[in-house]
User: Which sequence fits this backbone?
């Protein structure tokens, strides 16, 4: 299968803007919906479908012929909107018989002016794709197909709108019936506007998770040395770095990464982060410092916790703020843990929870910025 995509580079200047998730689902209405230039029974909006059984649009396509689905149109936008630069269209499709390497399909996005006049702003095609066999009139067995492409004009002004159309060509030797399932929770076909392609987001997710584990591992190695009062074992550092290096290599082997070959740089950054924590929390090392060791473990856990949240946000192909409530929980654990340790005698340093958290936040921010999908 070949996926034909047109890509553009997205350049970011100044401080990055955190984008909101922009998702529009395919719906049908028995009552015509007002849209620029008229009304439609097939519309797009941000409300996720509720009923489990989807609606199905069936097209009987002769061998070598092409059929087009209804055009789905969004109501006029109530305010000026800047879309994220990548359109990600997820279609739930089935056929009466499996189409193995003989399904071509194209989806195209349009911007409509106030009078409903369309202008194409992007498209993607699959050539020689595969559509699996469905049942129950296409309501069962529809599988998700993803098409992603850059959009040429991401700005939608007040009173303007969006429209999306999809066509199928049957390159099989005999006729086929193609079923497009939508407007059901089991087949939530939609168009989502993202900051980068999903494959790039998956790579960013994997790399950030690897750095999260690396930071925790390095802080754990520093904690082990502090707890025993010995010099840090380079072999332990090497094991942490080797595991992260393997994870980076696997992510890059899958392709689509926004960055390539940056594993050593992120590893060095992580080592400096962990050694900086150790210098602050275990001054005068090597000497036995059980409180410092416990603090280092808490710091490593906090960094891992926050980076995991950043990775989750990046994995959605958006340059998003992570879950702020969950992030607060990560930070609270460190503050409470430091407080409990300092309530007992034996800590070489005290009152350093805020400074430690600030160092963690700076490190997490640097890693998140390095891997986040650019937007705007």
Assistant:
């Amino acid at each position: 299968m070949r996926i034909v995509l047109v890509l553009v580079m997205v350049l970011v200047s100044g401080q990055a803007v955190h984008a909101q998730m922009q998702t529009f689902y395919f719906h049908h209405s028995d009552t015509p919906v007002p849209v620029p230039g008229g009304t439609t029974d097939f519309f797009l909006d941000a409300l996720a479908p509720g009923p489990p059984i989807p609606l199905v649009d069936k097209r009987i396509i002769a061998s070598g012929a092409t059929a087009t689905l209804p055009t789905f149109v969004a109501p006029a936008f109530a305010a000026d909107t800047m879309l994220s630069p990548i359109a990600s269209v997820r279609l739930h499709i089935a056929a009466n018989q499996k189409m193995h390497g003989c399904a071509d399909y194209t989806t195209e996005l349009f911007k409509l002016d106030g009078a409903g006049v369309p202008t194409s702003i992007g498209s993607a095609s699959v050539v020689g794709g595969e559509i699996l066999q469905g049942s129950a009139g296409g309501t069962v067995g529809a599988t998700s197909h993803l098409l992603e492409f850059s959009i040429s004009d991401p700005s939608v002004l007040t009173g303007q709108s969006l429209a999306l159309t999809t066509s199928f060509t049957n390159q099989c030797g005999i006729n086929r019936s193609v079923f497009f399932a939508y407007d059901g929770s089991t087949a939530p076909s939609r168009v989502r506007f993202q900051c980068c392609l999903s494959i790039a987001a998956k790579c960013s997710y994997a790399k950030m998770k690897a750095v999260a584990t690396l930071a925790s591992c390095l802080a754990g190695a520093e904690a082990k040395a502090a707890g025993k009062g010995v010099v840090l074992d380079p072999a332990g550092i090497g094991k942490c770095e080797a595991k992260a290096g393997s994870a980076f290599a696997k992510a890059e082997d899958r392709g689509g990464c926004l960055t390539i070959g940056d594993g050593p740089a992120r590893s060095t950054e992580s080592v400096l982060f962990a050694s900086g924590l150790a210098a602050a929390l275990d001054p005068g090392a090597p000497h036995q410092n059980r409180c410092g060791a416990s603090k280092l473990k808490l710091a490593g856990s906090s960094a891992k916790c926050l980076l995991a949240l950043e990775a989750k946000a990046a994995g959605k192909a958006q340059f998003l703020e992570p879950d702020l409530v969950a992030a607060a929980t990560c930070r609270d654990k460190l503050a409470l843990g430091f407080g409990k340790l300092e309530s007992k005698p034996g800590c070489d340093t005290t009152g350093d929870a805020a400074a430690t958290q600030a160092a963690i936040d700076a490190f997490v921010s640097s890693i998140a910025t390095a891997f986040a999908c650019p937007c705007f």
The first strand starts at residue 2 and ends at 4.
